[in-house]
Amino acid sequence: xxxxxxxxxxxxxxNHKRGRAAFxxxxxxxxxxxNMELVLTGYIGLxxxxxxxxxxxxxxxxxxxxxxxxxxxxxxxxxxxLHKALAMAYNARHQTVxxxxxxxxxxxxxxxxxxxxxxxxxTFTLAQTxxxxxxxxxxxxxxxxxxxLYARTPSGARHAALDYEEGQLHLxxxxxxxxx
Length: 180
Fold this sequence. Notes:
Elements: H1 2-12, H2 16-33, H3 36-48, H4 60-71, H5 76-92, H6 96-112, H7 116-132, H8 136-151, H9 159-172, H10 176-179
Helix pairs in contact: 1-2, 1-3, 2-3, 3-5, 4-5, 5-6, 5-7, 6-7, 7-8, 7-9, 8-9
């Protein structure tokens, strides 16, 4: 498990090369052990890295293989994590159709599990995706939903990110006064 944690720490610090190496070590060991849940977790980590550094390993075949693997594992939490990671990775690549589809799937899984913070994160990603796709009204709706979900949690830390995204939304619409 240490390699997964190291991968996450490296990713959080923006060191994608070391993060990728750590997740690859984790994935190799999970495959050696034959633990498919951990294999899926390793892939989720690698996919998450695509938000800070896109590479050729993230392609249609890899995504399909990981989705097929997830179908064989009865863990809705892992499915939700996978779809969240895919939504964020596709959004980073400006592939908004795929991002939107996976973001909605993530939201549905988190909603079913009644995970308010994760629902808020999913709707935030959906807001970003809609902004990138220039679906500004829909982006604002998802942003407002994300804000209302975060308001139900004890943490107000995410409000700065919500405010930043709202500013970006105004900028993308050339509404400079509102963006300020």
